[in-house]
Amino acid sequence: MLTLFAALILAALIIAFTNITSIDLTLVKNHMYSSKAYYIAEAGVADAIDKIQRGVSTVTPWQNTFPPSTSDIYYVSVAQSPIVITSKGLASVSNFSRILEVKVSITGNSSPYQVNISQWKEITQ
What we know:
single chain, 125 residues, alpha+beta, 1 helix, 5 strands
């Protein structure tokens, strides 16, 4: 009887440990995918700033894969007056997305223009 009771306690502990480990693994994966989506959105902001510096038109929204040859995508739009860059990064494997909104100002008379960031914030979904 004592052996059976000890086996039941041991089985319950093993099940609890497995459950906790599974939850921890899920939390780590969620954090990894969420961070990945943030950095993809950040790449979209960098792309927009590069286009602004070079004097390339940013009137039409665009999308791009990042890194190249993957299915992870950023979507970028640039509003004028004030200039606000909105970039949404999508980590496609997990469907995690993060949105950044960056207000910038431009100085200079010719390309490459100086782009100054005045506000950087994440938009919560």
